[in-house]
Amino acid sequence: MTALVATSLVSLCVLDASLVGYRAVCGRSAFVDRRSLDRRAMVVGAMGGVGVVVALAAWFSALLLLLVDDRGSTVDQLTAAGTRMLAVYAGLAVLTTVALAVFFVAPPRWGSLSMVTILGPLTLLRPAVPVAGAVAAASRDRHAVPATLSAMVVLVAVAAETVMLERWGEQAAAAYRPL
Amino acid sequence: MVVSLGPKRERPLLEVSDLVFAHDPGSGDRVPVRRADVVTQLNAAGDRGAARRVARPPVDHHAMLEPAVVDELLIRMHTQLQRLWEELRQGDLGVSLLKPLLATIRAAAPSGAPPLRVVDVGSGLGYFVRWATATGALGPGVELVGYDLNEVLVREARRLAAAEGLACRFEAGDAFALPGGADVFISSGVLHHFGAQQLPAFFAGQRDASAFLHWDPVPTYLAPVGAWVFHRARMRDPLARHDGVRSIQRAHADDVLLEAASAGAPAMATALHGLPNHRLPILDVIRPVIGVRPALAQPFRGALGPAARRLVPGAGSW
Q1: B163-208 pLDDT, tens per residue?
Q2: Which residues of A touch B229 (CB under 8 A)?
Q3: What is the number of domains present in chain A?
Q4: Is there a contact between B118 and B188 (Cβ–Cβ < 8 Å)?
Q5: Lowest mean pLDDT among A165-169, B273-277, B304-308
Q6: CA B304 to CA B95: how far, in whole Å?
Q7: CB contact under 8 A, A178 and B164
Q8: Which of A70, B166, B197, B252 supports an S-S bond with B256, CB 3.0-4.6 Å?
């Protein structure tokens, strides 16, 4: 169970970061052919996501080393917190995936509709999603401090990743020239 | 039947991009814009948020807005606007009507006729012209030209086209007096910049063409909320968001567009292309007002195939 939750969250983290990278260059270059810029942005975003995963792995490792006497129950708490976090993210991930599929595959009018009704509003909601995930993961149980603390660390890591990718996107788009 | 969904307005709805750039109507030369005048106009329109933002950019020693700052702002706003056109699939939507229209005009023309000239009026950064050139979506035998009043945007459109090696042209010109004529005039998001009284003159300037196709936002009851959400999500610059929402609020109702098109180009058969009465408002974010020479109306309808069901006839025999 722990492995499944962790793998799912890691996958979503990298996928989301890739889209954050893409979004970071959107609307910053008016060239028609921006494929190489978009591809690079998604790769850089995904690498940012991997960076977040590595940082969080270090955090969890340190946590489990420090709480050596209570490792089993800490893992259980973290797994429960991760499951709650996943429940928040999964719905958004499914909706985004379906909307993106419609945008790229369906006829233009349906693609436009998908953008106007789903992808646009979801972008607006996106900053609130990591917060909602962290709130869901945080526990009221006073013995579950590591889980609550970890939820806050995840939130800070994702926010930092977004800010850094936005800065990168601004510079990369300004420097971009089509081949 | 068409319906009027346009808002009733007490105060004018102003777009900042219309106020910060001005030109001499006679010479076409750019003229300085006093920042205080723009702020006053926005305040008088009750748009205090935009007035506060416009009060921030630097001015020169004559209290005029710095042209370089205005240019940078306009290019940034239009770059963000291009993202919206891309996401609304404006290229594909435009071609879905323009291609059968050009085929209809070609079929009616004598053999050996020169390439068809398509002029994009108020082309801004020239997204549609550059996209259609880059993709070859309109096929061979089409000359694409973009006109915009704003020479800054024209220069930027030329720079972008040159960098991508695109064989299309951009010229500075007034939408009401374009030189050279065209087989088809098109535009995207331009009509709402003109008042209802100005629209007949706009269409009159195109009455000698074979056709025109002008896309503009649909002013449905859902549009202002949708525009706010979408521009908030997609535009980075506050003034770009502001103008984006205002453009939807300023959009003309169906009947206004059809009446203006008929008044300006009375010899044309006119129509809209969208769901009648916008039964599902979110499906028609933008729609074109169409004008074609009467002899082309029914062949064009035939060339549209199933998409002809969405024609909402105005004047003429369709």
Answers
A1: 999 999 999 988 787 777 899 999 999 999 999 999 999 999 999 9
A2: 120-121, 124
A3: 1
A4: no
A5: B273-277
A6: 11
A7: yes
A8: B252
- Predicted pLDDT of residue B26: 74
Q: Mean pLDDT over residues B13-41, rounded? A: 86
pTM of the model: 0.88
Q: List chain B residues with CB under 8 Å of A109.
A: 89, 93, 283
**A11 contact partners, CB below 8 Å, separation of at least 6:** none
Best residue of A110, A116, A162, A179 to probe chain B, by most B CBs closer than 10 Å: A116
The predicted model gives B224-252 an average pLDDT of 90
17-46 in chain B: CB under 8 A from chain A: none
What residues of A are in the B interface, CB distance below 8 Å? 26-33, 108-109, 111-113, 115-117, 119-121, 123-124, 177-178
Which residue reads 């270090």 in tokens? A58
Residue among B83, B125, B164 whose CB faces A27 most closely: B83
Give contacts of B125 with chain A, Cβ < 8 Å: 30
DSSP chain B: -----PPP-SS----HHHHS-EE-TTT--EE--BHHHHHHHHHHTT-HHHHHHHTSS-B-TTSBBPHHHHHHHHHHHHHHHHHHHHHTTHHHHHHHHHHHHHHHHHHHSPTTPPPEEEEEET-TTTHHHHHHHHHTTT-SSEEEEEEES-HHHHHHHHHHHHHTT---EEEE--TTS-TT--SEEEEES-GGGS-TTTHHHHHHTTTTSSEEEEEEE---TTHHHHHHHHHHHH--SHHHHHHHHHHHHHPPPHHHHHHHHHHH-TTSEEEEESSGGGSSGGG-SEEEEEEE-HHHHHHHHHHHGGGGGGEEE-SS--
Name every chain A residue with its beta carbon within 8 A of the beta carbon of B160.
Answer: 30-32
Residue of B96, B156, B234 with shortest CB distance to A120: B234
Q: Which of residues 293-312 of B touch A (CB under 8 A)?
A: none
* ipTM of predicted assembly, 2 dp: 0.85
Domain that holds residue A19: 2-175
Q: Which of A38, A96, A109 to probe by mutation at the B interface, max B CB count within 10 Å?
A: A109
- What pLDDT was estimated at residue B279? 66
Question: Cα(A110)–Cα(A113) distance, rounded to whole angstroms?
Answer: 5
**Whole-number Å distance between alpha carbons of A161 and A16:** 11
Write down the pLDDT at residue B3.
47
- The dihedral through the CA atoms of B305, B309, B310, B311 has a sign that is positive
